[in-house]
Write a structure and sequence with these properties.
Helix content: under 10%
Oligomer: single chain
Order of helices and strands: EEEEHEEEEEEEEEEEEEEEEEEEEEEE
Number of strands: 27
Radius of gyration: 21 Å
Shape: elongated
Number of helices: 1
Distance between the termini: 71 Å
Structural class: mainly beta
């Protein structure tokens, strides 16, 4: 079916489909936001001003898509973007601007014995933010053929800017540092609910590696396996936590009185610290969120 790009006086693009009905009348349908293939998605992002896109079919990536302006991609009924043997790289690289994904599954293909050469999403240093809402990131195992550890960090998401996860899950992802998520540079990670499970790292942070910024948690957030917190970063409890156990924390060194958990305004920290443990069982977290010697 032929599709055409039209541009209005304000420079806004629309993609229209032109057909004839049974009365031979011309029917013009606006299909600007709808994509059914990876090529269509890339074309919308690279060559038009369309900023809100809806995926209506499952997609198979064939090349990375670079996000250099604010883009929102969603699916009414969860759709899957899953790799095959023909493409092992990162799905979305965000060098500038912001990316929001909603109701989409990204599948790295390790259940089909496919090894990846990078994370599913990489938000680079000049990007502004990455937001996932009710998304599933799964089955991504990074095995870099050049043995370059830079490409192996963050099995699902590698971010140099704020990353927010609103619900959803990260499952069965694997990298060198941060089996699921790796933050560095100006990166940070906020979990407003959701879960991380079944992820491993060959070095530090089987689930999450916080190399910059903080890890902010609220709602039903649950991280099964450990969170590695480097430098002087910390966990911030931003609201009620509904899970009995939220996360195990690994530190480079367990210095007594080091602040490891803090609370946002209005949150009683002493009520929340029991939901966290330290990986080194010789230490515990005190009611004021600091490392303390475990007396047994």
């Amino acid at each position: 079916e032929p599709k055409f790009i039209i541009t209005n006086d304000s420079g806004e693009d629309k993609i229209v489909k032109i057909t004839l009905n049974e009365k031979y009348e011309v029917v013009i349908e606006d299909v600007s936001s709808i994509v059914t293939t990876w090529a269509e998605l890339k074309y919308r992002i690279d060559n038009t001003s369309i900023s809100e896109i809806e995926i209506t079919k499952d997609l198979v990536p064939t090349i990375e898509i670079r996000i250099e302006r604010a883009i929102k991609i969603s699916a009414q009924n969860n759709k899957t973007i899953s790799r095959d043997q023909n493409y092992t790289g990162t799905f979305f690289i965000v060098p500038t601007a912001s990316l929001e994904l909603s109701n989409i599954t990204l599948d790295g293909g390790n259940k089909n014995y496919i090894n990846a050469t990078g994370p599913l999403i990489w938000a680079e240093s000049r990007s502004t933010s990455l937001t996932l809402t009710n998304c599933i990131l799964q089955n991504n195992t990074i095995v870099n053929p050049e043995n370059n550890p830079t490409y192996e960090q963050g099995g699902a998401v590698k971010t140099e800017q704020p990353f927010t996860m609103n619900g959803g899950s990260i499952i069965d992802c694997h990298g060198s540092n941060g089996g699921a998520v790796y933050t560095f540079d100006n990166g940070s990670f906020t979990m407003n609910g959701g879960s991380i499970s079944g992820c491993t790292a060959t070095e530090n942070g089987n689930a999450v590696y916080i190399g910059s910024g903080n890890l902010t948690l609220s709602g039903d957030a649950e991280i099964i396996s450990d969170v590695y917190i480097a430098n002087e970063n910390s966990v911030i409890v931003a609201g009620d936590l509904t899970k009995d156990k939220v996360a195990t924390i690994t530190l480079p060194s367990y210095d007594v009185d080091r602040q490891v958990i803090t609370a946002a305004n209005g949150v009683t920290l002493a009520d929340k610290v029991g939901k966290f443990t330290l990986k080194n069982e010789n230490y515990k977290i005190s009611d004021d969120g600091r490392v303390a010697q475990n007396s047994g």
